[in-house]
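We emphasize that the prediction below concerns an isolated chain of 504 residues; any contacts that depend on oligomerization or on bound cofactors are therefore not represented. The input was used exactly as deposited, without trimming of termini.
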Amino acid sequence: MRRKVLILIAVASVIRCFIAATTELGNDEVYYWTYALDLQWNYFDHPPGVAVLIRLSTINLLLNNELFIRLGAIICAASNTWLIFLTAKKIKNEKAGYYAALLFTASVYCSLIAGTFILPDSPQLFFWLLSLNTAVDVFNTHEITDRKRKKMIVFGLVAGIAILCKIHAIFLWVGLGMYILFLNRNWLKESAFYLALLLTTLCLFPIFIWNMDNNFITYTYHSNRVNQLGSYINWNSLLTELTGEILYNNPVNFFICLAALAALFFGKNFLTRQKALLLLFFSLPLITVVIFISLFRDTLPHWTGPAYTGMLLIAAAWMAEKKYALRLLLAANGLLLTAIISGWWLINFYPGTLGNKTKEKFGDGDFTLDMYGWKNFARQFMTFYKSDQQQGNTKPGAFIISDKWFPASHIDHYLAYPNHINFLCVGELNDIHNYYWLNNQRKQLYKGCDAYFITTSNNYHSPSPQLISQFTTVDQPEIIIQTRSGIPVRYFYVYGLKGYRFKN
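Result of the prediction step, given as a token string:
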């Protein structure tokens, strides 16, 4: 089975590398690239784990292309596949381990969202699975030994690092705490338990200190995302969350997990009670909380992603006793591969746009445009930029300006950064996010300078009155048409802002 798992990892990694190298960065990915430009103890939206991973995979931003920016996620996915194999082997047998690896690889979240694209989930999922693997070692029996005490301390450290990747990993301690309270309270008498808790707490200090210096802005931001609960049930957001969880986990995987849970409920003994409850405690709390929140406001399905790894382990243990299991798991992977090929073709070759066809909002609603056309636009803009400079229409050293973190991050990464053009994202904190801090590291607008404001038809908004008031004149926009397979897909609007009025 080990050889099969290694072959699976190798094949999946090659496919992930191909996707990573041939699709441009999405909105979130390119935004997290801005984290890596200036390493901090914490950021507006998330802890620093993803920034460190990007710095490592790009060799300190030396290899600044899509493949190497995403390489950390791909390496984590390969490691995660091996980890889930080892964990399932511990709770059941080697066949269950192989099936767990197949389930993991078939998961859209595990294999693609966190396993190919670079997100805070990418490093978080690695440390989540490492924590879960460690917890299985600690609680394989009720007996407390010196080896288990050491493992408990390791759990505290690894869980702390997981939280440094994404705050959702606090649910690792929720799962561990529930298991101890309900099944093995003797751990409450052990100093190793409190040392583990202390290690996790120490890992939180960088987040806490950064927030102290920044008015606890991360807490405010995330609490606003969660606390704005309506006074009535929002069935649409609940349906969106549940549908998203089914799709993100792969519909085949999802219903296998449901069947395995039903088998547990009806007393099928394919796992011991202790092991089953341990996995459920590491899964259900986060899933339950997110679904509850979705009753009242919009949520994102990938928030529950790590929690489903425990469900995959239960499903793998159940499937290990089924004759038809392998065919079903291969079908799940075939479904994912079909979706990947279809998505890749849509992004790179679909003729025209999937979105709005009216000129004012051309391309609006086309999700593929997040990952298409930015390199080509950079080339088109540079042709216009050089011509504009040569004709004397714009002063040398003109800035590029945006007023929202997307498309600012794309413009920064694909256009401004590689061409050494001064770039700023200006506006309200909730609009510019990390650029509020990045701007302080960059050259500022100065009296008399010129700038370009760039916006797109699929997310169109003209320069704000406040921005316009800061310049002497604002030209009519230069319109750059972007095509896909020879058919227009969206328009870029480039406004010339002339003569900044204020001193630096």
